[in-house]
Structures are given as C-alpha cells and as structure tokens.
C-alpha cells in the first residue's frame, strides 16, 4: 500500500503525519488523497465545511465531483471514491446564505447522481479514524462483495435443540453474536433471566465489558 497526498493539504499536514507512517506529497490532478493497493486505488476528496459551502456557492463543487469520476489517476485504477467533509457543518451554515435544504440537495446529487459516498469527520480525531478504518477495511476486503446479514440470520434447515434455538434467537439480536449468546446462556441459564439482568450482572459474564453490557441492557429495557 502507498499513499499520495496532494500538496495543497498542508493545512492539515500535522494531522496527516500522525495518521500515516509514511506518505508522498505530490500534485494530484484530482482529489486530495490517493490510497493505492496492489491492483487498485481509493480516491478521497477532503473538504472543510466552509470550503464545501464555498465550492457549492461558486458551482466549483460540480466540476470537482465530475473529475472525481476519473477511471485512473497517476496510473492507478480507481475502484472507490469518497467525499470527506472535515469540520462541523452547522456552524458554517449559520454564517452563510445556505440552509439545510441546499446541503441535503447537494448531498443527494453527489451520492445519487455521481455515486460518490459522503463521510463526515467533525474533528481531527474523526478524520484519523476515517482513514484508519478505510485502510483496515480495504486491507481485509470488507468493502467488497455482498453485505453480511448481521441482524437477519436464517435458521438452519435441520431440527435444532432447545439450546440451539436459544443461542440462535439471542445471536440474532443487535450487539450479540453467537459467542456472547453462549456465554450469556451459560451464565444466566435462560433468556428470561438475561432479559431481567441489570448492567452490573451482565458485566459479570466473561467477555462482556461496560459498553457491551449497556448495549445488551438497552435491548431488553
């Protein structure tokens, strides 16, 4: 993997240096970040909230989105694109002549007509997480193929025991996978007791911390 950063991103260069172990500062013909992998690349355009509004007002935004549709950049085939808006949009809207109706219309135009997904990073920490998660998902192949049926599990065609049905039912709920379902049933003995358990009691189950306990508690209460 190699990362190219447009030289005009100097305003966030300190942040970028913390995000990436190494990168090459170049004059990108389009976009601000070109993340290259073995056979393809991901192109990212970063805009501050104020820059997004200014480019929308001047209509420069639409030429930039059109150029983002390039099939190849610096010899790398583009497989995915993203528009990353960096900063809090609400404050900028209050200072402009635009309303949320203009913003939502622009978002839909970009996503539905240009097929470019939009991501918001309201602060520098969110910016770093965007790139970290993007690279992790690309490396693991999680941005490819069909979606996973995380909350709509299909029961097996074979006859299941009562215990297997309980595990199946629990693991079909948000935040509870099969491993956690088994641990819960082993600890409490029944779904009814799990549903009545408080956060402190849920945290006593192996593998369940405070955040997970609160998520499970909210399912039943």
Instruction: Classify the fold: give the CATH topology of the largest domain.
Output: Rossmann fold
Compute the average pLDDT: 90
Number of domains: 2
CA distance, first residue to last residue = 46 Å
Tally the beta strands: 7
Number of separate helices: 11
Main beta-sheet annotation? 7 strands, mixed
How much strand content do the residues show? 15-25%
- At CATH level 2, the architecture of the largest domain is 3-Layer(aba) Sandwich
Shape: elongated
Q: Return residue spans where pLDDT drops below 50 for at least 5 consecutive residues.
A: none
State the name of the first-level CATH class of the largest domain: Alpha Beta
* Class inferred from helices and paired strands: alpha/beta
Helix content: 40-55%
Radius of gyration (Å)? 23 Å
The H/E string reads: EHEEEHHEEHHEHHHHHH
Describe how the helices and strands are arranged:
Elements: E1 2-6, H1 13-19, E2 24-26, E3 33-36, E4 41-48, H2 49-57, H3 60-67, E5 72-73, E6 76-86, H4 89-94, H5 100-113, E7 118-121, H6 124-139, H7 162-171, H8 178-188, H9 191-196, H10 199-202, H11 210-220
Parallel strand pairs: 1-2, 4-6, 6-7
Antiparallel strand pairs: 1-3, 3-4, 5-6
